[in-house]
Design goal:
Length: 320
């Protein structure tokens, strides 16, 4: 083994005998790691640049070695080794930093997917994702608690990746995460403006309310990957009626004195969806759920599960 290694210096108790500072010890250890390949030149350079004290630790070591050579000439060889190691550290650290990044796109797609997977898990811990900042102004009640925290990393990650990787990012992102919307207006707005969402989204949770429910649910049929839909209902779900019910109500006011869930705006469009794997209905606020409301929820869940899980028409014709 070459005498120029941190390991050899340790064996000779050099760090204690020479009184080497912690900073220079770190750098000498890093040089060993550089030679064994566990860190690269960029990382070693970064360690040196991390603090001005690191560079002065190198200068300080030179003078300690010079003193040692004067006092104990038999230490000459060790001193030269240390000086050479320190010089190497400086040479490596001062190499220009390569501006080219890691060629991620040259990796096979499975490995890229695995890397992306890890990045997403690291940055977005929760399974549910709240739709980004609200861009629309509607009067829907905000029942859902705003418990999702958006960290700076979450905001930055998609924009850091560049256009090509961004497509891969969203493909995997929406495969893993379920997207929550506060109302149908918000869902519609995102479906209209986010091409990645409509192409890749698999799980959606939405509070069924607002004047856009019909168009929003119709738009869901354009999401080719959609597998799961979780609806939450509340009193505000009953606030907007379907076009037909609205017309009938103006002529038969008595019949429509009590609003039924079957008259609500968006139900017809929901019933037109096909090919889902999971459909569920929950109360947005459980404390107000009396027996009638709970029956409505259960029956609606049953109805939607039966129809929405049927295969899409294209799939049926393929099977024939
Ligand atoms: Zn709304």
């Amino acid at each position: 083994m070459s005498s120029k290694s941190w390991y050899m210096l340790k064996i000779k108790s050099v760090p204690t005998r020479y009184g080497l500072s912690r900073n220079i010890q770190t750098l000498l250890q890093a040089l060993d790691k550089f030679y064994t390949g566990s860190i690269d030149a960029t990382e070693l350079g970064r360690l040196v640049r991390l603090s001005p004290k690191r560079r002065s630790a190198i200068a300080d070591t030179f003078s300690k070695c010079a003193d040692m050579m004067k006092k104990e000439p038999e230490e000459l060889k060790t001193c030269i080794d240390i000086i050479e190691m320190c010089t190497e550290i400086l040479v490596i650290a001062d190499r220009p930093v390569p501006t080219q990044g890691f060629p991620l796109m040259r990796l096979p797609v499975e490995i890229r997917d695995a890397i992306m997977d890890l990045m997403i898990d690291n940055v977005f811990r929760a399974k549910g994702i709240k739709a980004a900042t609200k861009r629309i102004a509607c009067n829907c009640p905000k029942i859902e608690r705003d418990f999702f925290l958006q960290t700076p990393q979450m905001k930055a990650l998609p924009s850091l990746l560049g256009p090509t990787l961004n497509r891969e990012f969203f493909r995997i992102f929406f495969r893993k995460k379920s997207v929550r919307f506060r109302c149908c207006c918000e869902m519609l707005d995102h479906l209209k403006h986010n091409e990645h969402l409509i192409r890749h989204v698999r799980q959606i949770k939405v509070h069924w309310c607002g004047p856009e429910s019909a168009v929003a649910f119709e738009k869901l049929s354009e999401c080719p990957k959609l597998e799961g839909l979780a609806l939450s209902i509340s009193k505000s779900t009953l606030a907007h009626l379907s076009e037909r019910t609205d017309l009938m109500k103006s002529y038969f006011p008595l019949i429509y004195r009590n609003i039924r869930i079957t008259d609500v705006l968006g139900l017809d469009e929901l019933l037109g969806l096909r090919g889902l794997q999971e459909v569920s209905v929950q109360h947005a606020q459980t404390k107000n759920a009396n027996l009638t409301v709970e029956m409505d929820r259960a029956n609606l869940a049953e109805l939607l599960s039966t129809l929405l899980k049927q295969p899409k028409e294209d799939d049926m014709s393929l099977g024939e």
